[in-house]
């Protein structure tokens, strides 16, 4: 699979506006696509540095509504890398993002767990420069 890469991950949200408001407003990400498909939209967002996109999928029906914030079954399942932990941590706190813990240093880098407003648990990591 030479040349393959992970292009996007779907994140179920209560509605498109709430997802866009948080990721593009509070987080400062780019709205990469917003295409009306009739009964739904194709909405993708990504950090300003690019990389894997999030497909914001509006929950449809009870099962998907119940999955909002539970896609990782209570575990951290999304990992946001940064090149300046202190800058981004301060900006996220100023934007009202809730961190579950104080930043800590691990062998792989500086990290802290945070939640988006939908309940998804993330790690923000400034990877340690090796070698």
Give an overview in words.
This protein has about 130 residues and is an alpha+beta fold. The protein folds into two domains: about 1-70, 2,3-Dihydroxybiphenyl 1,2-Dioxygenase, domain 1, CATH 3.10.180; about 70-130, 2,3-Dihydroxybiphenyl 1,2-Dioxygenase, domain 1, CATH 3.10.180.10. About 20% of the residues lie in helices and about 40% in strands. It is built from three helices and nine strands, in the order E-H-E-E-E-H-E-H-E-E-E-E. It has helices spanning about 15-25, 60-65, 85-95; strands at about 10-15, 30-35, 40-45, 55-60, 75-80, 100, 105, 110-115, 120-125. The strands form two sheets. Strands 5, 6, 7, 8 and 9 form a five-stranded mixed sheet that branches. It starts with 7 loop residues before the first strand and ends with a strand.
Gist?
With 131 residues, the protein is of the alpha+beta class. Helices cover 21% and strands 38% of the residues.
Which key features would you list for this structure?
4-stranded mixed β-sheet; 5-stranded mixed β-sheet; 2,3-Dihydroxybiphenyl 1,2-Dioxygenase, domain 1; 131 residues; 2 domains; 3 helices; alpha+beta
């Amino acid at each position: 699979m030479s040349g393959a890469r992970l292009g996007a991950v779907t994140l179920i949200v209560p509605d498109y506006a709430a997802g866009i408001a948080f990721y593009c407003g509070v987080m400062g990400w780019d709205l990469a696509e917003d295409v009306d498909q009739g009964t739904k939209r194709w909405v993708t967002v990504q950090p300003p540095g690019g990389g894997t996109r999030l497909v914001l999928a509006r929950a449809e029906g009870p099962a998907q509504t119940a999955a909002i914030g539970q896609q990782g079954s209570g575990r951290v399942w999304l990992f946001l890398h940064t090149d300046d932990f202190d800058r981004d941590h301060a900006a996220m706190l100023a934007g009202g993002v809730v961190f579950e813990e104080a930043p800590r240093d691990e062998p792989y880098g500086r990290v802290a767990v945070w939640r988006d407003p939908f309940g998804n648990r993330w790690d923000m990591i400034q990877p340690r420069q090796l070698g």
